[in-house]
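Appendix C: a fully annotated inverse folding record. The material below is reproduced so that readers can follow the format used throughout the book. The structure is listed first as tokens, followed by the designed sequence.
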């Protein structure tokens, strides 16, 4: 049976289960942990969902990590109460250890737990710089920026945390900046601004890559970052993209270097050059193939199905990797 750890509002998991069906799938929605019965003993774990369906250690063939956010992640700044916070942290610890036990048994597929802590943006850029064309960058606080004459620059957020009160908080999307005007007393991540006609995103699912493109021209007068636009402005505009053979080989070499089976790589395509921006190793991808017409959805289902052989993630559950 496939064990999926997520939340009740994970639309990507909804999409997967819509197409693969509920048979052979056990979904644990962490935000609804009170609705489940759980036991963890020396003999393993046993979990029962609100409908009476049961999964156990011995019946778990694969484990997929979705987005099992805690209250503090979903509602930052909201007071959930000391007792409820304690109970939730106890449950988080138990579910985390169940995931680690399954990891040690080689049952985790595609998404590596806490992968962002192991493979952050600077590790990615370091791994990419002799494989792809990578825009120059600098992270700085209290130090002058090194900039080339005649070049434009953008500021980016490393964490995507909101700034200001939660109800009114703003998010720093990729934004053109004059580095001379940036306050030296706060941290800034600045990168060379690339002139490009197309955004290209490539979802890697173990041994296959699915590329899509977005024409940048319709929104360049509004923003340089398509994520700043409303979802309905861009979700239907992404189209399949044919990758050059050498670029696809570079993508798999990069993923192998980082020890990843899964990730969505973002590029800017300008004058035939693919400029690497980042890889999101646990991000959303469902909007790219909602109807299952492009092979991506079917490939994910094939990889996670309990009816197919299990190919565990390449990372081992060592002390630095544990969820």
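Designed amino acids, in order:
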């Amino acid at each position: 049976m496939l064990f999926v750890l997520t939340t009740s509002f994970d639309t990507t998991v909804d999409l997967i289960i819509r197409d693969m069906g509920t048979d052979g799938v056990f979904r644990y929605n962490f935000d609804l942990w009170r609705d489940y019965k759980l036991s963890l003993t020396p003999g393993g774990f046993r979990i029962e969902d609100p409908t009476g369906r049961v999964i156990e250690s011995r019946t778990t063939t694969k484990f997929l990590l979705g987005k099992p956010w805690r209250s503090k992640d979903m509602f930052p700044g909201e007071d959930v109460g000391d007792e409820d916070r304690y109970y939730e942290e106890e449950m988080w610890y138990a579910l985390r250890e169940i995931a680690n036990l399954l990891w040690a048994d080689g049952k985790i597929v595609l998404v590596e737990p806490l992968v962002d802590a192991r493979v952050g943006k600077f590790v990615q850029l370091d791994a990419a710089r002799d494989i792809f064309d990578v825009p120059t960058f600098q992270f700085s606080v209290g130090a002058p920026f090194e900039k080339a004459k005649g070049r434009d620059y953008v500021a980016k957020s490393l964490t995507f945390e909101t700034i200001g009160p939660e109800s009114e908080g703003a998010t720093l999307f990729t934004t053109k900046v004059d580095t001379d005007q940036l306050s030296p007393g706060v941290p800034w991540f600045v990168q060379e601004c690339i002139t490009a006609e197309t955004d290209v995103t490539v979802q890697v699912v173990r041994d296959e890559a699915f590329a899509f493109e977005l024409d940048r021209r319709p929104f360049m007068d509004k923003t340089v970052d398509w994520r700043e636009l409303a979802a309905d402005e861009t979700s239907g505009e992404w189209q399949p993209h044919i990758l050059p053979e050498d670029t696809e080989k570079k993508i798999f070499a990069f993923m192998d270097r980082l020890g990843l089976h899964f990730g969505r790589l973002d590029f800017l395509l300008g004058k035939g050059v693919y400029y690497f921006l980042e890889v999101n190793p646990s991000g959303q991808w469902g909007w790219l193939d909602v109807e299952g017409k492009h092979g991506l959805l079917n490939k994910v289902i094939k990889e996670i199905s309990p009816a197919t052989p299990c190919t565990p993630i390449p990372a081992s559950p060592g002390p630095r990797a544990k969820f």
